[in-house]
Design brief:
The protein is mostly helical. It has four helices and no strands. The chain has one domain (2-11, 19-69). The protein starts with a helix and ends in a 7-residue tail after the last helix.
Length: 76
């Protein structure tokens, strides 16, 4: 993903404006939808405390990835 982002930045002048912004928006939406699915998953909810740990782990990994790929992003 970092390579794709770097490529978008290099060709942003030639590409339609906002290409990198669209990529950020789509990635953010993916994380939100995936998080919501985890919260609404009845099977995951049956795990109890493990479900909370899984959700927190997903959140931490997502934040770390976004910070690596989009260092200028202030928040997820």
């Amino acid at each position: 993903m970092k390579r794709i982002t770097d490529l978008f930045k290099k060709v942003d002048d030639c590409a339609p404006k906002g290409t990198i912004d669209q990529f950020k928006i789509r990635w953010r939406k993916y994380i939100q939808v995936r998080g919501e699915r985890m919260l609404n998953d009845e099977e995951l909810a049956k795990k109890g405390f493990k479900a909370i740990e899984d959700f927190i782990s997903f959140r931490q990994k997502s934040v770390a990835l976004v910070k690596r790929v989009f260092p200028e992003a202030s928040q997820l």
